[in-house]
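TICKET: design request
STATUS: open
ATTACHED STRUCTURE:
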């Protein structure tokens, strides 16, 4: 079966759910507004310019989960999806997903954003398989710490290779759609890389290598 892999933020949705979740935490008064916004914005700028320390960022972004019950998180997910993510949905993204679904392709999202934020988004998009940075769980719920290999830069390739051990699909036939130069390791690993509304560096590389460039926002 052919594998169709999608990045999530600024690819299938018109924004960054990770950064937006930080703004949501501020809106809900669950974090110190000024300090959290300053750090959240700084991490996002580092992501955009390719200098993000993913481990430092995950410890920052997941810390609030350690203070919340599962019931609290479920309610936050519901509100976040309704008010903060739904406006980011793209009609053309849905059409692209449906195009692959009609061809009986295996659909998979791989995103650096944590699984607490992204699992409801993947469900909303109708994509059954998700590889995301993992929030650790302990006996009493989320610990506020990450676990495992983050799905960021080459980490996406590592996590995909682990997934493929149980779900074998040839990467030479696989598609991968992404907006970010951070995803070059995985774009280079598949047979059909596509730049979607790409950042400046990825657009330059895609043109040099004659990769397809697609917009889901036109």
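STATUS: resolved
RESOLUTION: sequence designed for all positions
ATTACHED SEQUENCE:
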């Amino acid at each position: 079966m052919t594998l169709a892999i999608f990045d999530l933020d600024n690819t299938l949705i018109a924004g960054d759910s990770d950064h937006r979740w930080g703004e949501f935490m501020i809106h809900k008064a669950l974090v110190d507004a000024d300090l959290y916004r300053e750090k959240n914005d700084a991490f996002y700028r580092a992501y955009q310019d390719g200098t993000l320390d993913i481990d430092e960022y995950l410890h920052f972004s997941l810390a609030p989960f350690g203070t919340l019950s599962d019931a609290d998180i479920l309610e936050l997910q519901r509100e976040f999806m309704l008010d903060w993510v739904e406006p980011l949905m793209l009609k053309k993204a849905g059409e692209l997903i449906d195009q692959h679904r009609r061809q009986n392709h295996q659909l998979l999202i791989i995103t650096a954003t944590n699984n607490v934020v992204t699992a409801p988004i993947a469900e909303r998009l109708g994509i059954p398989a998700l590889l995301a940075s993992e929030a650790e769980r302990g006996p009493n719920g989320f610990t506020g710490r990450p676990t495992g290999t983050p799905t960021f830069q080459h980490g996406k390739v590592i996590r995909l290779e682990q997934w493929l051990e149980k779900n074998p699909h040839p990467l030479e036939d696989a598609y991968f759609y992404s907006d970010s130069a951070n995803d070059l390791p995985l774009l280079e690993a598949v047979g059909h890389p596509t730049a979607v509304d790409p950042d400046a560096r990825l657009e330059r590389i895609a043109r040099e290598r004659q990769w397809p460039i697609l917009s889901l926002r036109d």
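CLOSING REMARK: The longest strand covers residues 129-138. Strands lie at 3-6, 106-114, 129-138, 141-147, 175-178, 192-196, 213-214.
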